[in-house]
Amino acid sequence: MMGLMASDETRTETRTETGAQAPAETRTHARVDGGARETSAEAPAARAWTTWTTRLLIVGIVLAAMNLRPAITSLGALLEEVRDGLGMSGSVAGLLTSVPPLCFAVFGVTAPRLARRFGPGAVVCAGMVAITAGLLIRPYVGGTGGFLAATALALMGIAVSNVLMPVIVKRYFPDRVGSMTGLYSMALAFGTSVAAAATVPVTNALGGHWQPGLAVWAVLPALAVLPWIPFVRNRKAPTSAAPASTAQAATSPRPEGGQSAEKPAEQPPLRITRSRTAWALAVFFGLQATAAYITMGWMAQIFRDSGVSAGTAGLLLAVIMVMGVPLAFVIPRVATRLPHQGPIVLVLGVCGLAGYAGLYFAPVGGAWAWALLLGVSNCAFPLALTMVGMRARTGAGVAQLSAFAQSTGYLISIPGPLLVGVLYQHSGGWGLPIALMSALMVPQIVVGVLAGRDRTVEDEAAR
User: In 112-123, which positions are buried (b, 16+ CB within 10 angstroms) versus exposed (e)?
Assistant: First the structure.
């Protein structure tokens, strides 16, 4: 909608005395003698409408991003109470923590197709509705099966929104990929950390029952539905909604009839699986997602089993997640300025290894330090999203790469949380699970360095 208004504004033409059409750029600079003067109200109204919708879109992106993790971290903070209430074993709880990546892999791959048919705004709006419904009903359906099904409904909405966030940023803000990726990554980290920190206190304030403590998080996605409603009917979004891009379009010459002089050529289908960079990015995404979902699902329990109170364990989990608020804004901006993102991958990986080592040897004494280090390591997620936008040249390429990297990556991450639960139940402690997490960090660094090389999937697929 935003781009369509911009297009209407930029394609308006003036006429010379002879009636010939003049390029639209003359309208933005000077009045042609004898031509019709632009009305003073028309252009400001169009510009104001475009600015308003741009701001509304930014608000929608931020609110949507805030709802992409609370369904998971709120459950992690109350996992022990949910296990007791539903009679879950450690292995079944591990299965529960593996549901997010499974749903992201299964449903995320459908996001580009849904976006082409209904428009990305409509899909994200429907995703927020699904999150609201799933979070609202899952504590009250009764039984493990119903709880898993309602959780899957919420995660379905998260999955499609996950995939479409980089696509929307690339489409509407092509000149600000780094800053916009940082903005929604920061909002995502903020929502994640707030849910981790506030779930236990909110549960206590609501009477100490875990059901309302989980259901209350349905309020946020319900609010996030509102800014996306104006974009539901916008199926053919423009390549940019940024004011700068609008101004650039206004100065581009157009032939008679108002049609664009540079009509994009028909592009052949991108065979994404032929790109080594796409595979490296998918594996990197999968390994960082493994670490992230193990952290969100089990880290609070690790601290609680080490002797930390439930409230403090939730705060430690919140510290891990809140580190992504400033770093998720800084890292994408730094990454877009580097020809190779490998050094950032290495720094994040070393922080993760140090955090796991401290968690193994002194889980209580250095708990806050380990939480900070693991929080830095978890910022591999915004880095991966940034590289998705950098490793493809076109919006269609970003959509394919985002769907491929995220769906394949989440498939790779499915066994991790489940395996942690199995190891925890059968070993009776956290030594083996922590060793597993440390071991997975090494290949994450390797494939991350490969994915960070300066090349595009279109070039690799063509070769």
Answer: bebbeebbbbbb
Contacts of 394 (CB under 8 A, 6+ apart): 267, 458
Which residues, in sequence order, are CB contacts of 177 under 8 Å at separation 6+?
169, 170, 332, 336, 386, 389, 390
384: closest CA among 288, 272, 274? Answer: 288
Written as six digits, the tokens of 367 are 């708990």
**What pLDDT, on the 0 to 100 scale, is given for residue 463?**
75
Fold of the 46-234+269-462 domain? Growth Hormone; Chain: A; (1.20.1250)
Degrees (nearest 5) of the Cα angle 98, 104, 110?
A: 150
Q: Which residues pair with 21 in a beta bridge?
A: 15
> How many whole angstroms separate alpha carbon 330 and alpha carbon 338?
13
Q: What is the pLDDT of residue 414?
A: 86
C-alpha distances (whole Å) from 160 to each of 163, 272, 402 are: 5, 19, 11
Q: Are 260 and 406 in contact (CB under 8 A)?
A: no
What is the rounded CA–CA span in Å between residue 274 and residue 354? 35
Q: What pLDDT score does 238 carry?
A: 45
- Asked if 398 contacts 392 with a C-beta cutoff of 8 angstroms, the reply is yes
Name residue, tokens 């379905």.
156
What is the model's pLDDT at position 317? 87
Block residue for tokens 């609070």: 300
Name the residue among 390, 397, 444, 162 with its Cα closest to residue 280: 444
Q: pLDDT tens for residues 342-358?
A: 999 999 999 999 999 99
Q: Where are the domains of the chain?
A: 46-234+269-462
Instruction: Point out which residues pair with 15 in neighbouring strands.
Output: 21
Judge contact between 239 and 395, C-beta under 8 A: yes
Please name the amino acid found at residue 324. Answer: G
Question: Using an 8 Å Cβ cutoff, are 172 and 242 in contact?
Answer: yes
At CA 93, angle to CA 88 and CA 94, rounded to 5?
150
Tokens standing for residue 129: 């509705």
